[in-house]
Amino acid sequence: MKGHFQQKLLIAAALTPTVLVAVYFIWGFGAATAYLSFTDSGFLPSKKLIGLFHYQKLFSSARWWNTYGNMFIYGGVYLLGCLSIGIVIAAMLDRLPKSAIIYRTIYLYPLALSLVITGLAWQWVLSPTTGLQHLIRELGFESFSFNILGSSEYAIYALGGAAIWHSTGLVIVLFLSGMKGIDVDLWRSAQIDRIPTWRVYASIVLPQLRSTLMTAIVLLAFNVVRSFDIVVALTKGGPGNASELPALYAYEFYFVRGKIGQGSAAAVVMVVSIMAIVLPYLIYELRKRKQ
Amino acid sequence: MKSRRQYSLRSALVHGLLFVLALYFLVPLYVMVVASFKSLDEIIHSSIIALPIVWTTAGWEKAWSSACTGLVCTGIKPYFFETMAILFPAMSAAIVIGALNGYLMSFWRSRSADILFGALIIGSFIPLQLFLIPLAVTMQKLGIFGSTFGLILIHTVYGVPLTTMLYRNFYVSLPSELVKAAIVDGAGVFKIFRSVIVPMSAPITIVAVILVFGGIYNDYIFALTFGETGKRPIMAAVLNIISTQYAVAEHNVNMAAVMISALPTLLIFLVAGKFFVMGLAQGSVKG
Questions:
Q1: Residue A21 lies in a domain
Q2: Which of A108, A113, A222 sits opposite B125 (nearest CB)?
Q3: B246 contacts chain A (CB < 8 A)
Q4: Which pTM value belongs to this model?
Q5: pLDDT tens-digit series, residues A39-64
Q6: CA distance linking residue B125 with residue A221, whole number of Å
Q7: Which residue stretches of chain B are H helix?
Q8: Which residue of B has its CA nearest to A103?
Q9: Total number of domains constituting chain A
């Protein structure tokens, strides 16, 4: 018994330092940024509290609302695209023999690339002088015009498309591993009853993968809020600030405009928004697992 | 007979769709590869999808050793080695600490452990913008802002939650008889770790290496914020090379620079794709 207690103490002693550092770097720094958002911090962090000033400024800024709204357009396009393409591909790959592994490699390799590389690749494809527009004009359609990166209305969709290209593989991986766990008997009985394959997926397989779907949504939603690299690499937030996302907004206010208080408020709103969506689900899921 | 024809029609449809989607995934890589092997003159006069008439590695050579970022013309080479100098120490540290933490946490199964564990995992998904200013202040105070060591430390600390989770989930799934038998033999917690657990950790360590390598190598935001000017890690460097303006944009050099930066993680994926997929499925489902 005594030995057991000593062991426990040893475990606690060995775990504590590294865990404390990680907790401090995540939750301690998070709290510090929240504090900064209530201070008059400019180029340098300051401790002087000024209440809700930065939040009032943020919420009365047209640029912020455009940026914040962009997050929902981009996020909507990204989630819909990744989930629909990913689930369809996973269902098709699930029924193919092992020799189809080449397809899996093709769909998954973008996941190994960074979002900077993703952004630069799509910039090359979409650039009007060298990319798609140039290609189609050379085919003889000389008045063809496609300059999505220069369009303040549609640049945000280009970001969404590039991000879909990068992350669809994640949905494929999750759903393929979920589909493996589904009962084989189900297939036999469906075959006997001559139910078309797509109907088996739509009405029997997918409903069983509800928790896989929720996992995918949560992971993709976090990716949306974190999106920074891809914006810098593909559109730099432009034209103007038309395709800016909150992570870029916060970064620019921190390090370019020297308004740390304002940037912190933006970061806090970003994180609170994603937590408001994700936390209720996580708590629900944890409770269910316990039962 | 009819049903067989229907069946083959359907399978043709499936393959057709898979093929079209494969194009969407392959085209960006293809156009970059062909551009990187063209001469600048050929890039300007040929279409983006045409294969090079004359294959040349001039773009790759310039991108590697003499392309400019701003006024410094060293190519991407020094940034690549700087990235490796950060990557290997940080990856090793994050994996050793994560393995030990994961092992200890696999013993310590209680509600408070679950909450702590959950807090770390959720924390590792939070946008980094929430940490940057306090992190900058801390680095400044420690005197390691903009240094190689600073980036090693940052990547280690933010890598530990992921490695801890991977190892904990792996150790929890191991048969507990092994550990129990060792306890009966009188072995202590750390003795068991060294002689029983570590030798069984190869598969999860491969997964951890792949994920952590990718995470650190592909990082942009820490590289941009905490990298020393002129010595920034590769993802910041490649963007600088691309945005350095010349009278005529050297697209072939730019695309070669992008390909060089993409190659390490791409190769790892091609060689160890199975582990990469395993890591993604585990790392995300159980988190």
A1: no
A2: A222
A3: no
A4: 0.91
A5: 998 888 888 889 899 999 999 999 99
A6: 10
A7: 2-36, 40-45, 58-65, 77-107, 111-123, 132-142, 148-173, 176-184, 189-192, 202-217, 221-226, 234-243, 251-271, 273-285
A8: B22
A9: 1
Nearest CA in chain B to A86: B21
Tokens found for residue B153: 């430390």
d(CA B73, CA B164): 41
A 10 A CB-CB count for B101 gives 24
Q: Look up tokens 């499925």; give the residue.
A: B281
DSSP annotation of B228: P
Q: Which amino acid is residue A18, in one-letter code?
A: T
Is any Cβ of chain A less than 8 angstroms from the Cβ of B149? no
Q: What residue type is B55 in one-letter code? A: W
Cα within 13 Å of Cα(B34), Cβ side:
19
Residue A150 in any domain: the answer is yes
Domain that holds residue A191: 37-290
Nearest chain A CA: its distance from B23 CA (Å): 9
Position A161 in a domain: yes
- Cα–Cα distance between B231 and B254 in angstroms, integer? 19
CB contact under 8 A, A115 and B218: yes
Q: What's the gap between Cα B178 and its chain centre?
A: 33
Three-class SS state of A79: helix
- B102: closest chain A residue by CA: A15
Please give the Cα distance from A227 to A118 (Å, whole number). Answer: 12
Say if the ipTM goes beyond 0.95. Answer: no
> Across the interface, do A271 and B269 touch by the CB < 8 Å criterion?
no
**With an 8 Å Cβ cutoff, are A170 and B284 in contact?**
yes
**Distance of residue A153 Cα from the nearest chain B Cα, in angstroms:** 23
SS3 A49: strand
CATH 3.40.50.1820 holds for B77-233+259-285: no
For A135-148, the three-class secondary structure string (H helix, E strand, C coil) is HHHHCCCCCCCCCH
**Chain A residues with CB-CB distance to B126 below 8 A:** 26, 30, 271
Please check whether residue A228 is in contact with residue A244, taking contact to mean a CB–CB distance below 8 angstroms: no
| Closest B-chain CA to A164 | B25
What are the pLDDT digits (tens) for B145-195? 989 999 999 999 999 988 998 998 898 888 878 777 887 777 777 888 888
